[in-house]
Amino acid sequence: QVQLLESGGGLVQAGGSLRLSCAASGNLFKINAMGWYRQVPGHGRELVANITSDGTTNYADSVKGRFTISRDNAENTMYLQMNSLKPEDTAVYYCNANVIRIFPRSRGDYWGQGTQVTVSS
User: Residue 116: its pLDDT value, please?
Assistant: First the structure.
């Protein structure tokens, strides 16, 4: 099995910053793309940003210039630095990873449990 453990959520005032982390562990041979998604009640899960294994990044228009996604392949960890936070960034943030398992040698898609980010106005 593969586990994704998120941390770093919390309550912050508008204009503030938070840094989310996602650590992958378990039956891992290789991690391909990783990403952060967010969801608010009554809405679907939306992509915030993703990053390939070679560091190519992609951002939702709503967070461009404010959020930065990065990863440490040696530590199997991904980060999301969130600056200039707005109340509309309030959501549960989920980590996603597409991996190749050690055994059986096959691909799998995994999600973390989610971490709450609340931005007060």
Answer: 98
Bridge partners for 7 per DSSP? 21
Provide CB contacts within 8 A for 20, sequence distance 6+: 6, 7, 8, 9, 36, 79, 80, 82, 93, 95, 115, 117
DSSP class of residue 114 equals: -
37-51 average pLDDT score: 97
Q: Which residues of 25-64 are buried (b: 16+ CB within 10 A; e: fewer)?
A: eeebeebebbbbbbeeeeeeeeebbbbeeeeeeebeeebe
87 DSSP 8-state letter? G
Q: Give CA–CA dist 88/62, Å, rounded.
A: 10
Tokens 């973390």, residue located = 112
Q: How much of the chain, in percent, has pLDDT values that exceed 90?
A: 97
